[in-house]
Amino acid sequence: MTPQQRLNVVLELVSERGNVSIADVSDALGVSTATVRRDLNTLAEQRLVTRTHGGASALGSGYELPLQYKIARQADAKLAIARAVADLVAPGESVGLNGGTTTSEVARMLGRSERLHVGSDVPGVTIVTNALNIAYEMSVREHVKIVVTGGVPRRQSYELVGPLVGASLRDFSIDTAVLGVDGLSAAFGATTVHEGEADASREIAAVARRIVIAADSTKLGRTTFARICPLSRVDVLVTDLEPSREMAADLAAAGVEVVVARNA
């Protein structure tokens, strides 16, 4: 594990648990307490955690990890989900993508797809996104046409938010919106942790003929702060494991098709 990877693990532990001790992190990572102490000091200097006596705490109860520090703990699952989502897209379609680790993998799969590469003069797929990192990475793909919404960027996620998102999408018609979420439940539908990102995702969904939720199984049955849309608005859920019996019943009642992605 590289020092940066170790810092990422430490930061995610703090974010998940709220508070950690030096001994907790040392046991979890199998490194010395001196190393953990240095790592916590480094993260505190970057204002990513609050240093406490004998450990560290998250900056607040609603703290969100910046995208560049998020670890793909479900990396294999997200790759499988991305492949399955790409298989749902036909050549020539337009796809709306919000930001996040899963949708970033979806964009990469769309960009690599030979099936969608229909010709040098015709876009194999048009990606409409409010995520600056996705737009930047896909801009070099000759068969991908990139359309970026307006808005103000959030440093944590590289997503553009604000009223300019909706204003720039008003005259569009998107075939499929692929949305990454932080939670999906029967009671609150698709949710995320930040209200501005929820608004932007809702604007993308509003101009799409089909809404696909790309979410690993850890998001199912979970509710976070800001609602994107109710479960009844979702057409397809692509996930990595069969949902629980209760969740499966809720999805069926809402008319949501479930696609379980398999690792290649």
Describe this structure in words.
Strand 4 (94-97), helix 5 (101-112) and strand 5 form a beta-alpha-beta unit. The protein has helices at residues 3-17, 22-29, 33-45, 75-87, 101-112, 132-138, 163-169, 195-206, 245-253; strands spanning 19-21, 50-52, 55-57, 94-97, 125-129, 144-148, 152-153, 160-161, 174-180, 183-185, 189-192, 208-214, 226-229, 236-239, 257-260. The two termini are 25 Å apart. The protein is built from nine helices and 15 strands. It folds into two domains: 3-62, Orthogonal Bundle (Arc Repressor Mutant, subunit A), CATH 1.10.10.10; 75-260, Rossmann fold (3-Layer(aba) Sandwich). By secondary structure, it is α/β, with parallel strands linked by helices. Helix 2 (22-29) packs across helix 3, helix 4 crosses helix 5 and helix 5 runs parallel beside helix 6 (132-138). The model has no long low-confidence stretch (mean pLDDT 91). 36% of the residues lie in helices and 23% in strands. It is globular. It has a seven-stranded parallel sheet, with helices on both faces. A three-stranded antiparallel sheet has the order 1-3-2. The protein has a three-stranded antiparallel sheet with strand order 10-11-13.
Overview features:
264 residues; three-stranded antiparallel β-sheet; single chain; Rossmann fold
Helix content: 25-40%
Tally of structural domains: 2
CATH architecture label of the largest domain: 3-Layer(aba) Sandwich
Number of helices: 9
What integer is the average pLDDT? 91
The count of strands amounts to 15
**Based on CA inertia axes, which overall geometry fits?**
globular
Structural class: alpha/beta
CATH class categorisation of the largest domain = Alpha Beta
Mind telling me the C-alpha Rg? 19 Å
Order of helices and strands: HEHHEEHEHEHEEEHEEEHEEEHE
GO molecular function: DNA binding; DNA-binding transcription factor activity
InterPro entries: Carb_Metab_HTH_regulators, DeoR-like_C, DeoR_HTH, NagB/RpiA_transferase-like, Tscrpt_reg_HTH_DeoR_CS, WH-like_DNA-bd_sf, WH_DNA-bd_sf
Keywords: DNA-binding, Transcription, Transcription regulation
Protein name: DeoR family transcriptional regulator of aga operon
